[in-house]
Amino acid sequence: MQKIRLRYAKRGRLRFTSHRDVARAFERALRRAGVPMAYSQGFNPHPKISWIGAAPTGVASEAEYVEIQVVEALDPASLARVLDAALAPGLDVLEAVQAGPGGLAERMEASDWHIELPGVDPDTLSVAVERLLAEEHVEVERLTKDGRRLIDARPAVIRAEVTESGGDTPGVGIDMSYPERSCGILRVVVRQTTPAVRPDDVLSALRVVAALEPPVPAKATRTAQGRLDDEGGLSDPLALDRQAGLG
C-alpha cells in the first residue's frame, strides 16, 4: 500500500460545513476520481482515511490535512489535481506528497489563526490582547453536548499580536462586508491541547479580561499547523515527507 498526505483548504461558505460532511464529500470525490483506495477488513469495510486535527465548524482554513492509503502506486501531484477537480469549490486540494517515515499527527503541535473582528478598533483590540497575555490563567465557558464547562484558555496561547492588514496569506483577506467599520485583525498561535482551545475560546478570553464584545461575528481562518519552533513560529508538517521523497 501507498500512503499519501494531502493539505487542503476550507474556504468561503464551506467554512460552515461540519467535519462529518467534509469527510463524506472527500469519500464521494475519491470514488468519482477513481482513486484505488485501500479498505479496512470486517463486515463494514471503509476507505482508509486518517483525518488530522480538523478545524471546527464555522471557521475557514488554509491548512487542513488528511492521509489516505491506496492499493496502487500513484503520482501525488496527479492525485491532487483529479481530486481537487472532483471536490466542490471551497474544498480545495493544495498539495499531495507521499508519506515519509513517522506519523503526521505528531507534527501538529499548534495552529496559527488569523481572526478578523469587524467593528473592533485595532487599538482597542491591542489593549485587550495585552491584558490577556499578562494573565497566567483565564477561564472561559464553553457549551458542549454534555452541558456547560469551564476551560482555561490562556496556557494554550503561545503568541498573539494585532496586525493592520490581511498579509500575503493565500485565501485570507479583509472581509469587505462591513466597509464602513474599522477591523481589528488578531494573529494568534494556539497550542493544540486537550480539550482544544478554539478561536472562539480566545475571543471569550478577551471578553473576560477586557470586556471586548465585537458588534458582528468574527471570521477566523487557520493559516498553518505544525511544530513550534524557538520563536513561536510553525514548521511545515509535510517538509519531512518531501525530503524523504527526494532522497
UniProtKB/TrEMBL annotation:
<feature type="region of interest" description="Disordered">
    <location>
        <begin position="218"/>
        <end position="247"/>
    </location>
</feature>
<dbReference type="Pfam" id="PF10105">
    <property type="entry name" value="DUF2344"/>
</dbReference>
<protein>
    <submittedName>
        <fullName>Radical SAM-linked protein</fullName>
    </submittedName>
</protein>
<feature type="domain" description="DUF2344">
    <location>
        <begin position="3"/>
        <end position="199"/>
    </location>
</feature>
<dbReference type="InterPro" id="IPR018768">
    <property type="entry name" value="DUF2344"/>
</dbReference>
